[in-house]
Each structure stands twice: as C-alpha cells, then as structure tokens.
Design goal:
- With 176 residues, this protein is mainly alpha-helical.
- Among the domains are: 1-42; 102-175, Alpha-Beta Plaits (2-Layer Sandwich), CATH 3.30.70.370.
- It has helices at residues 2-13, 18-25, 29-42, 44-60, 81-117, 141-153, 172-175; strands at residues 62-64, 70-72, 123-128, 131-135.
- The strands form 2 sheets. A two-stranded antiparallel sheet has the order 1-2. The chain has a two-stranded antiparallel ribbon with strand order 3-4.
- Strand 3 (123-128) and strand 4 form a beta hairpin.
- The longest helix is centred in the middle third of the chain and has 37 residues, at 81-117.
- It is globular and about 60 Å long.
- The two termini are 22 Å apart.
- The model has no long low-confidence stretch (mean pLDDT 93).
C-alpha cells in the first residue's frame, strides 16, 4: 500500500499520466485513470497548484523557490509533447524540491556556525537529499543532537512546521 500511495502522490503531483501510472503499479489503464481522477477530486489544491506553476512558467519563462531562486524553463511551450511535459514537471517540482534544497543549505550553514561557535569537535560529513550525517564524539552526542534538530526545525518559519527525525548509530545504516 505504501508503494502504491507513494507512486500516486509523487507521480500525480509531478504530472504522471494514466499510462505511466498503470505501468508503474502494474494495473490497467482505466484503474490508473480512475486513481488520478479520484486524487484530483479529493485534493483539488494539488491540481490548482500544478496548473498555476505551469501557467507561471509559461508567462515568465521560469519558476522560483520560496527564496526566489529561479529555474528557467525555455521548453515550457515546446512543440514536442515529451519535451514540453518534462518542462512542466520541472515547473511543478522546482518550487517544492528547490525550496527543500534551499532549506537544508540554510540549516547546514547555521549548524556549521553553531558547531564552531560553541566549540564542538563534531563534524558535518555529508548531505544526502534531506538528511545530514555527522561524526560526533561520544561525549558530545547529548548536547549536539538537540542543537542539530533545533537548527533544522527552526531554519525558516512556514505555515506547516518543519519536523525532523534524528537518530544515532556507529554508521549511517545503524542510525537508520
């Protein structure tokens, strides 16, 4: 069920049509079409958002993240349907994923500053999508974990609060 929900949520918001959804979930075309119709009926704001982002891209030639970083989309009105569809997916995806990238970058800068300022020996090692990996001496774990969580959750105030899961382990796999 999780796989189906994930395919529907991410696929539909980024413009997956019934043919691709039916292939992805190994279901017939009509069922996929019904899933999409039902999704847009239940979550009308998603369809509205999608249409607005595509229209914005057509009008201005670009879309922006929450922090006004631009992504230019010269192919948004391309004559080739496949090329135009890809530009439309970028128009919908960029404000969401680009904003997420901006937020994690801001959090990384803030955390780096706090680590130095507060004299921690801990090191930020790696960013993987929306995850940060740290090397933390055992004696700092109890102090550094809440600081990292605080910096990530409070990096920017949104209408829906940012929530962060934080874990520890001797390696990345163990922390998961």
């Amino acid at each position: 069920m999780r796989r189906i929900a994930k395919a529907i949520n991410f696929g539909i918001i980024y413009g997956m049509g019934p043919r691709k959804l039916s292939e992805e979930l190994s279901i017939d075309h009509k069922t996929a079409k019904d899933y999409i119709a039902s999704y847009y009926d239940r979550y009308q704001g998603v369809k509205r958002y999608r249409d607005e982002m595509i229209e914005t891209a057509k009008e201005s030639g670009y879309v922006t993240t929450l922090f006004n970083r631009r992504r230019y989309l010269p192919d948004i009105e391309h004559g080739n349907n496949r090329i135009r569809s890809e530009a439309e997916r970028m128009a919908v995806n960029t404000p969401i994923q680009g904003t997420a990238a901006d937020l994690i970058k801001k959090a990384m800068i803030n955390i780096h500053g706090r680590l130095k300022e507060e004299g921690f020996e801990s090191k930020m090692l790696l960013q993987v999508h929306d995850e940060l990996v740290f090397e933390v001496p055992e004696q700092e774990v109890e102090r550094v974990m809440p600081m990292i969580k605080e910096e990530m959750e409070e990096v920017y105030t949104l209408r829906v609060p940012l929530k962060v899961d934080i874990n520890k382990g001797r390696n990345w796999d163990e922390a998961h």
